[in-house]
Amino acid sequence: MAGKAIRAATCIGTGAVALAVVLSGCSDSTDGTPVGSAPSGTEPDFPTTRPSRTTSAPPSAPPSSTTPIPPGAQALTPQDGYVYIETKSGLTRCQLTADAVGCEAQFENAPSIDGFPANGVNLTADGTVTWIVGNLGDIPTVPLDYRTYTALGWTIEASAAGTRFTNDGTGHGMLVRIEGVETY
């Protein structure tokens, strides 16, 4: 019996040592320095399903804005405080809030930010302009035709020459084109 007990103790001891070795290799952290690649300035090329939006009639309740809609302008209905648009060419996408308009495009004459050409521009209602490198993501845009629209206190004039955004309260705005952005 003594031999069997010694063998059992040896097996248990060997198993405990093996278990200790395996467990000592487990850790919550990984040593090293993270390394990433710089953004390329282009979106990845893979198919996505983007929910579509239609330019539906505004709700029957009048909008809270006291700014009159320009004659012939089509009102764009916000979703959770945002309106997302895409130019007729599909080369520019923008998001509007009551406070700002941000547009994304591969601008030809954009400034560099941290060594990368800016692909976004943001204009606040008070006229502050900020260039950015970013991506609006998979937003549900309303495609614009060449005409006038209104949304969240902004008048949007879409034409072949570019898309003009003017804040109805301050008069500040910008003309967005692939060739560049003009602010006023």
TrEMBL record:
Signal peptide start and end residues: 1-20
Organism classification: Bacteria, Bacillati, Actinomycetota, Actinomycetes, Mycobacteriales
Keywords tagged on the record: Signal
Region (Disordered): 29-75
Protein name: Lipoprotein LpqJ
Sequence ranges of Low complexity compositional bias: 47-67
Superkingdom, natural source: Bacteria
